[in-house]
């Protein structure tokens, strides 16, 4: 089969398409013929040599995929059948023509969605669901500040916040991105390049502050996060795009707010945790992607690249040009 490959860590120019061995499904697994996979920040970090796959996971990039079931593992007793369309959460291996998936990490493709659209759901939406529901424990009426609000996780988090009857606010750049975030349900957006988002967030909450912050930036935002965090607020850290270094009285300011700083990653979680998360998401969220619901969820696709153009896809994400998910279609 063909797969995205790189021989040494470095820039996007190191990526190319290579023929590699096709995997075989083990017990409790199915083989998915991949139609599309989506790009994630983790793929960029892995390519740079900064984020190794979990033990036992494929070294091929790709944390989510959509396609069709083409083979069942030995003794398979599950409900998936050959030919079924499916989307999958993966620890790696999605940017290839085939990938093996444990049954518990497969999800049905929502009615009315194409396979490229479905590929935009698993990693981003499960991450947002986990951060809001399981970690941040967002409640009805609370305010949620979503950094990188027009990225893959951000666009999912806006919609899920509304589904949970809370109020999403976002940071992003440009008037156009703010308008796009508002079209998805954001109550307000703040251009981090032109204004102090912490002051604007305080104004938007009449000085009360933000109940839950979803933070993929880290070091460079810590002071502003704490400035606009409400008393007893939850600051959920899931990325370090703004660096890992903190210089200053973070702990004393956190203590004064009685704040809760929680860190979370999805890729490194164990199989049982992921299977439970996938089950809950499938039951509680996936129905809202189908037409006719009072709340209509929609994966946001930025741009679709062919597998051969994987370098261009990485360059686009690295330059922060994407609004929503970048998709790779397999040949």
Report on this model:
The relative contact order is 0.15. This protein has 10 helices and 15 strands. The model has no long low-confidence stretch (mean pLDDT 94). Helix 5 links the parallel strand 9 and strand 10. It has helices at residues 41-47, 115-119, 122-135, 152-163, 175-184, 197-204, 222-228, 250-256, 271-284, 310-318; strands at 2-6, 15-19, 29-38, 64-72, 85-89, 98-102, 106-108, 143-146, 167-172, 188-191, 210-215, 229-237, 260-263, 301-306, 325-329. The protein has 2 domains: 2-107 and 115-121 and 299-329, Quinone Oxidoreductase, Chain A, domain 1 (Alpha-Beta Complex), CATH 3.90.180; 125-263, 3-Layer(aba) Sandwich (Rossmann fold). Helices cover 28% and strands 26% of the residues. It has 331 residues and is an alpha/beta fold. Helix 3 (122-135) packs across helix 4 and helix 6 packs parallel to helix 7. The chain is globular and about 60 Å long. Strands 3, 4, 5, 6, 7, 14 and 15 form a 7-stranded mixed sheet that branches. A 6-stranded parallel sheet has the order 10-9-8-11-12-13, sandwiched between helices.
């Amino acid at each position: 089969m063909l797969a995205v490959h790189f021989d040494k860590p470095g820039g996007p120019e190191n990526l190319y398409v290579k023929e590699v061995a096709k995997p075989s499904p083990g017990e409790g697994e199915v083989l998915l013929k991949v139609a599309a996979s989506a790009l994630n920040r983790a793929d960029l970090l892995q390519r740079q040599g900064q984020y190794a796959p979990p033990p036992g996971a494929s070294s091929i990039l790709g944390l989510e995929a959509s396609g069709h079931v083409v083979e069942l593992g030995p003794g398979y007793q599950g409900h998936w059948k050959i030919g079924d369309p499916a989307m999958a959460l993966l620890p790696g291996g999605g940017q290839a023509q085939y990938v093996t998936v444990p049954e518990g990490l497969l999800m049905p493709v929502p009615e009315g969605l194409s396979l490229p659209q479905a590929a935009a759901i698993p990693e981003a939406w499960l991450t947002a669901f986990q951060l809001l529901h399981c970690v941040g424990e967002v409640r009805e009426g609370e305010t949620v500040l979503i950094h990188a609000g027009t990225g893959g996780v951000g666009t999912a988090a806006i919609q899920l916040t509304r589904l949970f009857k809370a109020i999403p606010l976002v940071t992003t750049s440009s008037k156009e991105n703010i308008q796009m975030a508002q079209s998805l349900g954001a109550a307000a957006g703040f251009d981090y390049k032109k204004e102090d988002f912490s002051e604007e967030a305080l104004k938007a909450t009449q000085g009360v502050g933000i109940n839950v912050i979803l933070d993929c930036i880290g070091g460079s935002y810590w002071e502003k996060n704490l400035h606009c965090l409400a008393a007893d607020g939850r600051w959920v850290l899931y990325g370090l795009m703004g660096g890992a270094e903190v210089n200053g009285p973070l702990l004393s300011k956190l203590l004064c707010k009685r704040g809760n700083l929680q860190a979370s990653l999805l890729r490194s979680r164990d199989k049982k945790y992921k299977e439970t998360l996938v089950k809950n998401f499938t039951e509680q969220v996936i129905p809202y992607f189908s037409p006719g619901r009072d709340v209509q969820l929609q994966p946001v696709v930025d741009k679709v690249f062919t597998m051969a153009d994987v370098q261009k896809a990485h360059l686009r994400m690295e330059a922060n040009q994407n609004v929503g998910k970048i998709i790779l279609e397999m040949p």
